[in-house]
Each structure stands twice: as C-alpha cells, then as structure tokens.
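Re: the 175-residue chain
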Amino acid sequence: MEKIVGDILLKTYMGDITELSVDAIANAANSDLWMGSGVAGAIKSKGGQQIEDEALSMGPIRPGEAVMTTAGNLPSKYVIHCAGMPPGGKATYWKVLSSVQRALNIASDHNLTSLAFPAIGAGVGGLSEEQSAKAIVEGITHYTRTQGSVKEITLVGLNKYVCDCFCKAINQCEE
C-alpha cells in the first residue's frame, strides 16, 4: 500500500526491516537502549555490536525520546532508537507517538529523506499492533505539518497482520 500524506509517501512493507536500504531504520528500543530481543535483537545481530555500544553511550533516555546511531553492517546509514518503554516495562500509545516524532525531528536535523519504522511498542512492549500502528501514523501525520526533510516512510511488519494494521491506520489518518 502507498499513500501520500502531506508531502510524504507512506508505504507498507512485509519483511525484515534490517534488509531495507533507507537513510535510517527505527529500532523499537527501551529507554536504557540495550538491545535484547525482537527488532532490537535483529538489528544488533545483523548490524553488529557497535550499534548497541554507540546507543548505550547516549543513554539512558526517557521513554518517548529517541537517539540516532550509525548502522554498522546494515544497508541503512543510521538507526534511530525510539524508546517506547522502560526496560521490563510496557509501552504506551503516547510514548510511541512521542518517540516517532522525536525520530522524525532527528532525521530532519540530519537532512535524511527516507525512514522505516517497525511496530514500536508491540510484542514485548505489550501494546497491540493496532495501537502501535495508530500511534506511529499519528506521529507521522503531526510531522507532515512541519517543513522537514523526510519524504518517504516505510512501515514494516514481519507478517500480514501487522501490515494490515499499518494499512488501516494509514487509511484512517487525516491529511
């Protein structure tokens, strides 16, 4: 699915976020920025320990914030670590939305044009895939009201259900 929201091309992709060649991929992070399982574990496994080491040197941060590191061995240039939850805690809609807005602002500060987001806060974070998708798309919609550099965002699901949640959220967003 593809839809223009503001001046951003929003699209969905079913597959592995670590394989995308975009300026930056988002990591579904905890606020201490250590990379355990899920998306974070996949990024660390494929991109290398240096991503976690660099992230840890910037943390801890508050849930709802984000930081950017290099991407190690990944095809993307950067990883933006979106803290949707504290370690061992649960993600919330507003912390996910806030971390997405912070990620987009960081991307603009570095003149990045293409990003990819997983379902931040879903899975280990305890947020439903529907709520995660809605929070992410709402954060993107708020960003479209600015004059930022990001022009293409890929919303990534490992399975059809997560992609369907992103599609529903995109279709419900107001331009």
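The mean pLDDT is 95.
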